[in-house]
Design goal:
The complex is a heterodimer of chains A (about 210) and B (about 425). With about 210 residues, chain A is mainly α. Chain A has a single domain, classed as Transmembrane di-heme cytochromes, Chain C (Fumarate Reductase Cytochrome B subunit). Chain A is about 75% helix and about 0% strand. The longest helix of chain A has 24 residues. In chain B, strand 6, helix 20 and strand 7 form a beta-alpha-beta unit. Chain B is globular. In chain B, helix 14 packs across helix 15 and helix 19 crosses helix 20. Chain B is mainly α and about 425 residues long. The chains are: A mainly alpha (about 210), B mainly alpha (about 425).
Amino acid sequence: MIQYLIDGPLWYFSLAVFFIGVVWQLIAVVFTGNKADLSVPRDSAASGAIKTFFSRFVPHREIAPAIMLPVVAGYMFHLGLFALLFFAAPHVVFLEENLLGFGWTPMPHWAFIVAAQFAFFGLIVLWLRRLVNPVSRLISTLDDHIAAILTFVVMLTGCFALLEGSTGLRLLHRFTVELWLIYFPFSALMHTFTFVPSRMLTGAWFGRRGVDA
Amino acid sequence: MSEQLERGLETLRGEIDNKVKAFFSSCVRCGICAEACLFYTETSDPRYTPIYKTEPLRKLWENEYSFWGKLKSALGMSQAMTEADLADWEELVYDGCSMCGRCSMVCPVGVDISGIIFKVKHGLSQAGFSPEGLVGATQRAVDIGSPMGITLTTVQAMIKHVEADTGLKVPMDVEGADYMALLSSNEIALYPEYLESLVKIFDHAGVSWTLSSDAFEATNAGLQLGDKSIAGQLVQRVVDGAEKLKVKNVISPECGHAYTALRWEGPNFIGKAYPFRVVHILELLDELKAEGRLKTSGQESERLTFHDPCSIVRRGGINAQPRNLLGAISGNFVEMADHGNMNWCCGGGGGVSSNERAHELKLTAFNKKKSQIEATGAEALVTACSNCRTTLEEGVESNEMEIEVLGLTEMIAAHLEERPAS
């Protein structure tokens, strides 16, 4: 019964909530009004938007030494998670068989281990920093902690699920993924998508003023 | 809920646009912005973290626009915002933020934090949570025409002195002039050499220009307070003055926020585009130099450095021009370590210098600039904003530093090439 629920209705429900929620949130951003700027631009807003979208992947030289820890940990976590999500062998098979109908070459086992270590190390460092650093502690919300814990649990159960043969552990991982998908559109996890319009809107603002941001 | 609080919250609601939604839904509370803010780096107080200063608007967005906020509201579990939610942020936003915008340059998800802080200021000003000093300055700007209470009579007296000193006529209310120059209160009260420099430079370059007796003041206390309605009224005065004289260009003086108010925010405050161009004095001098109309001679031998006014460079896009001009008159110019778009603020922008309550905090924040200046070993500090200049002079005096603070326009005027005697 539980297996049926997790592999069946709850899976489809969580996918629906995820996709509809993400689209709904993005529509809310894109279609909410923004007053037209009546000042005469000095430079192109569009090129500013594109420039800033890419430039923010690398911290400014002037501030880099002070923020090295969150930047390095952030990159380790995000790159590790991306690699696990799309190139871990079980995920490639799952996506091919259940969602896409086609697959690609998964990463070798050693790369999986490295990616998992990167992702775990990065996430743990970022979360500890959130708890310990006076600035992060002050500004963090309950949502930030739930999002971090939920992501950690998904990754942890994912490692457990590698013990193939145990249906229980596989189901546990899938169940936590479903919770993560349902929580995603209504949480800080949405930055996965909203960072794009955020960077571009700011870049456009700076761009029309002729500021390289 | 008091009427004033409701007005403040309604104002904040009106500020929620697609940018605010994108920004708040992408902020991951990493706190990186703190390291870009001199009020945080010089005090180590986490409350000065830039994104924390936007909390009143974030809370409103979360309560009324997010899924969880709407759910809580539907279940009757929502907590209404109170006066404390706004009152507690007055000091952070007005005393502990110079609107320098450095935080907006470093946010990894691209949040324009400074832009949101301005929106918060708008809400706080409408709810009655603004510092007395700034409210008083704004009231004087509305009633008298200047935040320092300067009247046309004072300007006329200054003009007489300038004409006597230079032997040149200061054109007043000349219809059809190419340029209408504006002054900041500081330039009238503290730095009359600015007008003297304009007179000399424009005479040298053959510029057709005028002052306006209706619109001589460029500063905009409404912008500093965050009150868009008052900011619009003050911009409208300039627009009316320029339209009356049918000028083609309006020159923003050496004042950072005046440039922001006139050049970038003004048309939005009054709801229409201008029939004239707004040009910053540095842009104009650079243009005149490029056209060969502004010729300088001789070079300063003392070691100079330049303080970039935030509103002019980072929020205004004027970066190369002061360097072109300084390059022409200095043989010993040295940049600060962080300059241009990533300069550090002097600490007095965004109305902080008009807010007596923020005096001590401003001097603490100045420590960042002090260490920057000292690292250059410069003997003179040049800037292009009278508000920065007073803040820098105050910081230099308070810290017993041995460095002269100069305005760039007056330096250019001091190096004008002599015309051959006819």
